[in-house]
Amino acid sequence: MFRKVLIANRGEIACRIAATLREMEVRSVAVCSDADRGAMHTRVADEVRAIGSAEPRASYLDAEGLIRAAQESGAQAIHPGYGFLAENAEFAAAVEAAGLVFLGPTPDQVRALGDKRTVRELARRAGVPVVPGAEGQETESLVRAAQKLGYPVMIKAALGGGGKGMRSAAGAAELREGIEGARRVALSGFGDASVYLERRIERARHVEVQVAGDGRGDVVHFFERECSLQRRHQKVVEECPSAAVDEPLRARLTAAAVAFARAARYRGVGTVEFLLAPSGEFFFLEMNTRLQVEHPVTELVTSIDLVKLQIALAAGKPLPYKQQDIVWRGHAIECRVTSEDPTRAFAPDAGHIHTAHLPGGPWVRVDTHVFPGYTTPPYYDSLLAKVVVWGRDRKEALARMRRALDETHMEGVHTNLDYLALVLSEPRFEAGDIDVEFVQRHLADTQPRNGRVSRAAAAAP
C-alpha distances in angstroms, 163 versus 154, 166, 300, 421, 454? Predict the structure, then answer.
């Protein structure tokens, strides 16, 4: 096992990884940009290395600088977290070439599974259904293919993820315009302008299955997560399990995810994502070769530390579980608290946090890097905290989450806390009747009273 690990990330995920390393008695090395000096992830790590200026390309995206920091600190491995370089095959290869261990899949797997065209073919060979689609370099060939697929269609970047470049088209003119726009975003965000088309599945849910493999063909799953509550293709609320998945469907979904990961001879922790149609049909979307933002809901219902498992598998250890060892119990929900202003089209906000009161009590978990006196930099993701709760069933978990959000107060920046409260009180959401366009259909014109949480001040005499 490793003696020291460098965490090539920041914010709440760097804090969360450091916590597991400490439990494993492995020393952690944090990295920080100039904007993150004194940030929480630098306080909870055993060592800190400054790596550059505030701009991500000069710090958290500087592969050479990160590897150099690992070597100078004496770390044997690098954990990429999520975002930044977590799914960058060149970074993974450079880490391995430097004699270090990349705490994730092999570089070849990161590369192959990051190309949506390659991965669709792998899914077909594994017998996993994929969304009907089309590939091609020429715009007009894609337009002709869309005519055969039937509108509406989705345009997606061949590389990358996170919804970047994704857009919908209902006709040829809109498709031509969408392809050009998606190519620009794909080139800027992923260095490759290639796009492909998928038939749009109406009223679909986004359901994903957490898996882990030892790289030799042994794979287990950790059940499914419901990730349909999205705004602009970004997840807002996640749950485990999905209210739409019964036992027969769960068996088919998880079997498909395991078959795909086994066909890839996957090493490490990963997520196989599906679109679930109202008919019960499901279609493979992609595989994420990293830790997911929403991994805590799986940890709460299975009592398994996925980061610890990730580290062990990268160290060459066999899977410590058989499928029958992994038991699902209860229901977990995660809400992403962000520094955004819902009253200004969710514009990102940055500033000095005067007050940060986070919830507690039974079965409440908060992953965060925020503290009173912290100044949020404007250069990075707007995520402030993940509030996660567990209940014996979905009804109890929802009640617990409402209570937890009501206890959460942050002063100094605008947040989406009131918006989250609105989402959780929407009757259709309470009933579990959601899909990937739920927010657009039911909450697009709904605004909280304000974007700044001031309950504490309002309650003062």
Answer: 11, 5, 26, 24, 32
